UniProtKB/TrEMBL annotation, chains A, B:
Keyword Cytoplasm: yes
This enzyme's EC code(s): 6.1.1.12
Enzyme class label: ligase
Pfam families (alphabetical): GAD, tRNA-synt_2, tRNA_anti-codon
Protein name, per record: Aspartate--tRNA ligase
Family listed: Belongs to the class-II aminoacyl-tRNA synthetase family. Type 1 subfamily.
Domain Aminoacyl-transfer RNA synthetases class-II family profile residues, every copy: 143-558
This protein's UniProt keywords: Aminoacyl-tRNA synthetase, ATP-binding, Cytoplasm, Ligase, Nucleotide-binding, Protein biosynthesis
Length: 589, 589
């Protein structure tokens, strides 16, 4: 090794020993007679000292030629610092330099390599290798490393076998769009990159592997949103001879282990809620349960109440659902603030038609935007129904069930944020259960699998497959933390006939089902065990643990929203010779 | 869980307890009044017992409807076996069945699910999920799992950080052929799948990550040989502030750890040999050192000897090299056997023009195919030079250095196999050092990087870059075990100018170098540390540890020699809609 120690290692107990360090110049302070260099590596920072009368003129000259981010090799004697720095572990000592070698000079970086940088997104992405030098970014990847390690510790301890499934697989039309790979050896044919190893992990169960896991790259060619990446990583798991309860317990165990091992947090038992309940109480199948502010219906299906009809307010009269939340302590909102909130809710992304408020003033009086329709007694009854107290603000939307709930869910999250109830260092987990098996796609006029086509219906709901597809519940579950779906899975179909029926419901002809998933249905005929599993979004889980919103900060070399890696400038054109070999051509845009 | 125990778990200490097992029917023995079922899962086999007078007629009826590979759930009482089976851990007990449920029936498998199967390669690949049920195949993947686990244990313990590098990267013309992925969002442009994460791991060193590793899928679109796969797995590693010696020690440590942890073998210190020595002594840069039979030159460059010229044998007179091996105890080879060996060596794959033998008979006389040219004194001198003893057989080839060594290397391996000197349970490792930096490609009339373009020349050989490219040695090393290259790496170039010069030597124009590797050369200007690394072929390492020749047996879902997965029938055509979205077209074959 070019060094004897790292830059995070020396202590007062090393006093008077000789050490050689390698690292990057973080800062130089030149006081004329004394010159200090902060030398940085992954492990920390150590102060180098050059002193008039003690250090040769030659070393001073070298030091004065240095710039930020130069790579140095410095040898010297460890001495106690006169002025100690209690903020860093090496703060008690410094290295009195006796030799100094520039291993590599550095041009001035295009942005500051500091915790707070002056570089914008684009420049930091182009020079991602410099951005990765910054402590917060490096710490994110160190967190990710620990998360992966600890995931394996837990899974290995539970007898799961890590099996690598193939990356070059087969394109299937169900689900998101595939990335495809032309096959040179099989002209005109293509591999696809896996959106998940779903069918392979099920085959491993048919093979008797019993417990499988993998931390694995998956791929989806979707138009990218802020927190989507074309390649992403899953913790992918499957177990045999299990029921839903077994999966919930096993993977609640994983998440609790990760919280304990990585963050030192003892996580409470994870509560459970049905999909129907989550939609009624939070308007979302991934509610943020760090705070309450649950939905209260003034007119609705939830508790069959109607406190709004027949008073001449046609908006409510014609609405399927009138539902609101009580924002505690928000009665002080001005008319202007309420208008802004209304405008926020009416943006196309949310699409509400309006927002009704009921303000419970500190003096006990009530004020509402609809008080010309409703008497004070009506409004008092509403406030009581909301459980509101003086100083609170009730926010109410109406319309058809689906839309109203979705809008109010957004408003609830917004109010939670405004009230500081969404602290990223607080973690609230929830199992959401009993998802619908199918959802109807209006655009395509057909049924889609809400989870995927391999999810089993609840046995007691199988008769509904003949009569009421929308009511069939799935043996499917999501793990939600802080309003983010971090994992989801299901008990699978393991019977050929039921699987074939499922494909038929999803609009596959027998031939299509056989061509695309024949191997799986065949496998079910050779002794397939009952099985189920789950997959966690690893990037998302890491960002959640790191208290960040974007997964991009937890990926070493992410792509931008156009799917480009601007550092390596990819994707890029390939040569005509490559196209010829692959027997493909590009088509004019 | 549907079971209380696995099929490998119950012991005599569980006597008289109730247990529920799940698994597959391995065998059924029906003796009329008594019926035994061997129930199998990943963990073992447990014998189920049904007995007249003790077991209900209904259970007997169910049992008699069973076939091989049916999936069962069986509950019963653990009892001591009358006739114990010492060959299996559960052999002292059996489960006296009180209830039996068929979880899933099974069609008759297309081949026997036994250690020795009757299924050919093709049928086993088509039904890979059944092949994976066989103990030897499952054990291979369990070995792979342990290898991965123990690799991580070692690397984590040495402060390496696991970082995931991207799979969708950029196509570069150097090296093997890339698999490419058309970008829908960037029409006319393509990603490439990585042949290795080489540039990314170097960038991580520039980022100061100091020690990186990853067990990672890589991809090469090559015409497949028996033991190549289009997707394969590497243990990929890189370290900063190191010299070659540090890498050798660190990764010799990894291999020794794996041998100890996975196979219980204390591995001797790994000897080292230069490339030049390996070529001279074994005719190969990956010699199998489980046995000696080293090359002895009768005329050559190695020890500047010439014991063959001027005796009228023009084949040797005109040869650059006359070189042989001494096969101990093979003097009994008949003329017919020698002719067969000669024919074997003359096959196009090896391409020798002939084979000269010198037989040292047990009675001390010598017999050679060239004894009309050479006197008994000549032949005696040869035999002495070979260190041969009565009963030995010397096998000699001649020609130009490169070809003769290659041919004799093949012959040496063949003789080693015939003599039983290549026991797969014996492991002999070797570091091969000081590889040439460049090799001349006659076909393309240009120099190629022997390792890759990022490998640094030995500092003392840098002046030779101006005068004698073929003599420049690289800071590159391979780890060879039993004649297989299991890992290779190098100390990297970390200086922009030297890297640019290397690209220029390899025939890149400045523009090409900048377009393809500009990001890396840029990175070298912002403070790149000295660094180096290594990558191990993980599939190969697993097959070596498993004592097998083919990597395919250590991959869960391998592809065949045409790059096809015949189980899922991939690659396959994709829809015109997909092609349209990607703005590509297939071209007639």
């Amino acid at each position: 090794m070019l060094r004897t120690h790292t830059c995070g290692e020396l202590r007062l107990t090393d006093d008077n020993t000789t050490a050689t360090l390698c690292g990057w110049v973080q800062t130089i302070r030149d006081k004329g007679g004394v010159l200090w260099i902060d030398l940085r590596d992954r492990y920390g920072i150590t102060q180098l000292l050059l002193e008039d009368g003690q250090t040769s003129a030659e070393l001073f000259a070298i030091s004065r030629s240095l710039g930020r981010e130069f790579v140095l090799k410095a040898t010297g004697t460890v001495i106690e610092r006169k002025s100690k720095n209690p903020n860093i572990p090496t703060g008690d000592i410094e290295l009195k330099v006796t030799s100094l070698e520039i291993l590599n000079p550095a041009k001035v970086p295009p942005f500051l390599i500091e915790d707070e940088t002056d570089g914008g997104d684009d420049i930091r992405m182009k020079y991602r290798y410099l951005d990765l030098r910054r402590n917060p970014v490096r710490r994110n990847l160190e967190l990710r490393h620990r998360m992966a390690q600890q995931t394996r510790v837990y899974m290995d301890g539970q007898d799961f076998i890590e099996v690598e499934t193939p990356v070059l697989i087969k394109s299937t039309p169900e689900g998101a769009r595939d990335f495809v790979v032309p096959s040179r050896m099989n002209p005109g044919e293509f591999y696809a990159l896996p959106q998940s190893p779903q069918t392979f992990k099920q085959l491993l169960m048919v093979s008797g592997f019993d417990r499988y896991y993998q931390i694995v790259k998956c791929f989806r060619d979707e138009d990218l949103r802020a927190d989507r990446q074309p390649e992403f990583t899953q913790i992918d798991c499957e177990m045999s001879f299990v029921e839903q309860e077994d999966i919930l317990n096993m993977f609640e165990g994983l998440v609790r282990h990760l919280f304990k091992a990585v963050k030192g947090i003892d996580m409470a038992e994870v509560p459970r809620m049905t999909y129907a309940d989550a939609m009624n109480r939070y308007g979302s199948d991934k509610p943020d349960t760090r705070f309450g502010m649950e939905f209260i219906e003034l007119k609705g299906t939830f508790d069959t109440i109607d406190m709004t009809s027949g008073k001449g307010f046609s908006v409510f009269d014609s609405a399927e659902l009138v539902v609101g939340i009580n924002a505690p302590g928000c009665a002080h909102y001005t008319r202007k603030q309420l208008d802004e909130l209304t405008d926020w809710l009416k943006r196309p992304q949310i699409g509400a038609k309006g927002l009704i408020y009921l303000r419970y003033n500190e003096d006990g009086t009530l004020k509402s935007s609809v008080d010309k329709f409703y008497s004070e007694a009506d409004l008092k009854a509403w406030a009581a129904h909301f459980g509101a107290r003086p100083g609170d603000l009730m926010l109410i939307v109406s319309g058809d069930c689906g839309k109203a709930r979705k809008q109010l869910s957004e408003l609830r999250l917004e109010m939670g944020s405004r009230l500081g109830l969404r602290d990223p260092s607080v973690f609230s987990a929830l199992w959401v259960l009993d998802f619908p098996l199918l959802e109807y796609g209006e655009e395509d006029s057909r049924w889609f699998a809400m989870h995927h086509p391999f999810t089993s219906p609840k046995p007691e709901d199988i008769p509904l497959l003949d009569t009421d597809l929308g009511s069939v519940r799935a043996n499917a579950y999501d793990l939600v933390i802080n309003g983010t779906e971090v994992g989801g899975g299901s008990i699978r179909i393991f019977n050929r006939d039921l699987q074939a029926r499922m494909f038929s419901i999803l609009g596959f002809s027998d031939e299509e089902a056989k061509a695309q998933f024949g191997f799986l249905m065949d496998a079910f005929e050779f002794g397939a065990p009952p099985h189920g599993g789950i997959a966690f979004g690893f990037d998302r889980l890491c960002s959640l643990f790191g208290g960040a919103d974007s997964i991009r900060d937890f990926i070493a070399f992410p792509k931008n929203n156009s799917g480009r890696d601007i550092m390596i400038d990819s994707p890029s054109p390939i040569s005509q010779a490559q196209l010829n070999e692959l027997k493909i051509a590009t088509v004019a845009k």
